[in-house]
Specification:
This protein is mainly β. It is built from no helices and 16 strands. The protein folds into two domains: about 1-90, Immunoglobulin-like (Sandwich); about 110-195, Immunoglobulins (Immunoglobulin-like). Helix content is about 0%, strand content about 40%.
């Protein structure tokens, strides 16, 4: 796999003498490239002999601008080599968000001891239907401790959905259990794992 439309990448391959099966350490390699099933074109990148029959091809940026790229390597008296690679937009060397700016910076978790506004949850009647018009009792238990009321009260959004502003003290632990209850409704329970 290589990155799509990015320069400075490499395709490694070996050349083998057809008659003997031995590695060809002195091949003059010709390269053909096809992009997304299109016609073959002469490779515009460079081939480097790494020794012992191993070579590396550095494609141009334009030769990586497709979803599936076919590389075809030939040399006189050698077995042809065909390599197909699939490209990706992700940068697997980027430790933050794989080079994809739409991803959040870091794990998608709740921060420990930091307020979280508009935590949304549904409530259901005993038949499993969304329940409106409830007065919610909201409680939290921190790291296996006893349940206690949350700092703030839940309010109704619509269609059986409710929202609660969780305070920093509600989330001052690693494992947070949330329990929402009301007369005439099933309890709704959540477990949150916070990050530092």
């Amino acid at each position: 796999m290589i990155r799509k439309n990015v320069s400075g990448q490499h395709i490694f391959f070996c050349m083998v003498v057809a008659s003997s099966g031995a590695a060809d350490g002195s091949a003059t390699v010709t390269v053909k490239v096809t992009i997304d099933g299109g016609s073959q074109n002469a490779g515009a990148g460079s081939v480097t002999n790494l020794g012992n029959g191993q070579y590396v091809y550095a494609p141009t940026q334009g030769e990586t601008n497709g979803n599936q790229i076919g590389f075809f390597f030939t040399a006189t008296s050698d077995v042809p080599v065909s390599i197909m690679v699939t490209t990706t937009a992700a940068d697997l060397t980027d430790s933050v968000r794989l080079g994809l700016s739409a991803l959040p910076n870091g794990p998608m978790q709740v921060k420990k001891n930091q307020a979280l506004n508009s935590f949304m949850f549904p409530m259901f009647d005993t038949s499993g239907n969304p329940k409106t018009g409830l007065t919610i009792t909201s409680q939290r238990a921190i790291d296996g401790g006893s349940f206690a009321g949350t700092t703030n009260s839940a309010t109704e959004l619509s269609n059986g959905w409710y929202t609660l502003n969780l305070s920093a003290s509600d989330l001052n632990g690693t494992v947070i259990a949330l329990r929402f209850s009301s007369s005439g409704a099933l309890d709704t329970d959540y477990t949150l794992i916070t990050q530092p």
